[in-house]
Automatic annotation (TrEMBL):
Gene3D superfamilies: Nucleic acid-binding proteins, Recombination protein O, C-terminal domain. NCBIfam families: reco (TIGR00613). This is DNA repair protein RecO. It comes from the Bacteria. It comes from Streptococcus oriscaviae. Coiled coil: none annotated. Involved in DNA repair and RecF pathway recombination. The lineage of its organism: Bacteria, Bacillati, Bacillota, Bacilli, Lactobacillales.
Amino acid sequence: MERIETRGLVLYNRNFREDDKLVKIFTEKAGKRMFFVKHASKSKLVVSIQPMTYADFIVKINEDGLSYIEDFHQVQAFKQINQDIFRLSYATYVLALADACLQDKVYDPALFAFLVKTLDLMEAGLDYEVLTNIFEIQLLGRFGVSLNFHECAICHRVGLPFDFSYRYAGLLCPQHYHQDERRLHLDPNVPYLIERFQAISFDELETISLKEEMKQKLRLFIDQIYEEYVGIHLKSKKFIDDLSSWGQIMKPRETGEEK
Ligand SMILES: [Zn+2]
């Protein structure tokens, strides 16, 4: 077994036998791994294995089976996220997506950094719905889905009020709308924003602000894309969908204009 020190983010834990736990941690240096924690309730490790805990871990990596946590320090808990059921449910979904798109043991420091940054920005109070959309769009490639939101699939012109077509698995410009009578009839701002989301930088993220109506259109389109091309159904996403149907009642009303 190899002993390493690495940043890591706890994805989830589950009970195993009487008082032991299995903990899935996305590590920066060794990808996602399953760790075995014996007598978890009495272990000093218990504070480090809660979902969404971000810490420096000293671990023993076992290539053929379960790995072990030796020690940890610099624990960062996402306090603001954990205090708000809306933020928490989106953050939980983002973790589940990162888990779903990556095989265990695969080194992916770029995804690790992107995931941690997304949580940091949710913690800092940025729009969790938009952050989630951006995360979903940038993850498409890891699900093996490559869609061109830049140009018309037929004439390759750019910068037009585009619509999306499943038949062409891409955009159609107004001149070629008629090529697919079942095109989605999107608000052209939707594909425009999706293209921006594909390559957005962390700095730009902090300046993005969208109206509620546009966010709903994005949510609907990204759901369609995931249904058609990714086909995963995560419990945490179902929870968000349920939350949005009755959650409006609970949401604190903002004064003045919608952001
Ligand atoms: Zn065209």
